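Subject: Sanity check before I submit

Could someone independently write out the structure tokens for this chain? I want to compare against mine line by line before I put it in a report. The sequence has 214 residues.
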Amino acid sequence: MRIGIFGGAFDPIHYGHLRVAEEVYESLALEKVFFLPTAAPPHKTVGRITSFAHRIKMVQLAIDGVDHFVVSDIEKEIPGHSYSIETLRRLHAAFEPGTGFYFIIGLDAFVELPTWKEYRQLPSYANFVVVDRPGYSKAELEAVLDQYFPGYTYDDNRKEYLLTGQYSVFYRKTTLFGISSTAVRRAVAEGHSIRFLAPPAVEKYIYQERLYAK
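---
Independent answer below. Compare away.
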């Protein structure tokens, strides 16, 4: 089984997130993409992130009716901060042996990988799918690999960096949306429309629950 793992705050989820997940799903012939809202992101200030329950609900509303998209609350079960290495270990324990995991991450986040907990162990648990981000280039991805994961080889046909272990790093260009969760929150706070930035059900929920309003 080939499963995509898409973690993030999703505060809120928007069309940019959904399109990335769809294109990676199709490009790598995945069977499912799991959305994993982070319970307590280590890089965010406590109190400045919307409650886990609201963020889970918004993801559920956004992916409703898409059979190959699944939302998971697994990070809520991890005490303390939500570290990707702990999540991947739990996923390995929860799924049958031989399951292939594809960890979806933006290039902007990938270049910060050395700041993550036990980052050198991450490729021992999953393939990385690094998606391009505005203002970043593939050369920056390769700079991280050169410094922290030397010994890799590149398969041009598969657009795949083969690491020394059993897993790989895939680089994928996806449709770039000029949308961010920060911009959505700001628009709500300033009284502007967020129509066509997030799915209608998510938009309705935000206003119904008075999320992000001043």
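---
OP: Matches mine. For the report I'm noting this point. The mean pLDDT is 93.
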